[in-house]
Write a sequence for this structure.
């Protein structure tokens, strides 16, 4: 079942690695660097994306250097600037501003892929839900359809949820390979709130009637999803952010399966089909 990792200072060491703990496919790290500081790492067997959450950095990998990556002061200041670092490459991130934070997202990948930059202009946005249905969120696809043919089974996005609204709703899952109805993906959620005193609720359950696992999520927590339905709620008065990593076990196309008991909600919440289409 899913697992919650409480916020902590990871000292630039990976929070999630394939085969170490619950997940077998996903990699996740948070790098925090001051101006002039650098960090070099290598994620064996993984394709990697470095997403500059705040600040600015030079990112070097596979004989290429991408200068001045990062255009925002923080996650609430527009789409991210990122570098896809390829597969199994040694990566060096050097901060050129203080308080630089870089999210490193990865997934197991056997194919070799070349690095490329993903500018804010290449990030794709889809809006889902509405305030009236308490489900409004905006999903910025950093590594999605813009990487077709250039990446493996890794998908990376940033989700911004309105205060008091749900996401991952109606409840959905993606733990079984049975196309075209559903595909098998592991997932990592990393939460932030504005203000940082905010909190939410994360549900996880496998089938209708089963006893759900419910966790209170706070700023900086991380949630690992290996299976089951996993809707998310945010408390009123707090905007929510989720950095999302999805890795397909068999393919790149994510197909979500919505819980049949809530099928009647599919027509009431706007943007659901557009959201599904963007993940394929």
């Amino acid at each position: 079942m899913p697992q919650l990792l409480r916020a902590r200072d990871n000292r630039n060491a990976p929070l999630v690695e394939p085969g170490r703990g619950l997940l077998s496919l996903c990699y996740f790290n948070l790098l925090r660097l001051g101006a002039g500081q650098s960090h070099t790492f290598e994620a064996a067997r993984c394709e990697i994306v470095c997403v500059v959450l705040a600040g600015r950095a030079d990112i070097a990998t596979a004989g290429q250097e991408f200068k001045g990556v990062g255009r925002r002061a923080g996650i609430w200041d527009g789409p991210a600037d990122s570098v896809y670092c390829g597969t199994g490459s040694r990566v060096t991130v050097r901060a050129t501003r203080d308080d630089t934070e870089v999210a490193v997202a990865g997934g197991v990948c056997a194919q070799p892929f070349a690095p490329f930059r993903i500018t804010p202009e290449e990030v794709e946005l889809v809006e889902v839900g509405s305030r009236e249905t308490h489900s409004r969120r905006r999903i910025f696809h950093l590594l999605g359809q813009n990487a077709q043919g250039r990446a493996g089974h890794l998908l990376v996005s940033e989700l911004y949820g309105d205060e008091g609204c749900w996401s991952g709703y109606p409840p959905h899952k993606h733990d079984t390979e049975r196309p075209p109805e559903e595909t098998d993906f592991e997932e990592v959620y990393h939460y932030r709130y504005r203000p940082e005193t905010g909190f939410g609720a994360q549900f996880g359950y496998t089938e209708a009637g089963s006893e759900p696992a419910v966790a209170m999520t706070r700023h900086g927590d991380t949630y690992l999803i290996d299976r089951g339905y996993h809707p998310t709620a945010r408390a009123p008065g707090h905007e929510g952010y989720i950095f999302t990593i999805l890795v397909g076990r068999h393919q790149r196309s994510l197909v979500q399966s919505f819980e049949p008991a809530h099928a009647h909600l599919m027509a009431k919440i706007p943007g659901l089909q557009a959201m599904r289409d963007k993940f394929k």
